[in-house]
Amino acid sequence: MTLLPWQQKDWVHLSSYSRQDRVPQALLIHGNTGLGKQQLASQFAFSLLCEKPNIDGLSCGQCDRCRLLKVETHPDFIQIKPEEPGKSITIGQIRNLITGLTLKPQFDSYRVVIINPADQMNNAASNAFLKCLEEPTERTILILITDSLTRLPATIISRCQKLNVSEPNKETVITWLTQLNSNLLPTQAETLYNLTQGSPLQALDYIDSNILSLRNDCFNAWIDLAKQKQHPVIIAESWHKLTEPPLLHWITTWTVDLIKCYYQTSPIRLYNPDYRDPLQSLSQRLELKALYKFYDLMLISQQRYMTQINKQSLFEEILITWFEINQNKI
Question: The whole model's pTM is what?
Answer without folding.
Answer: 0.85
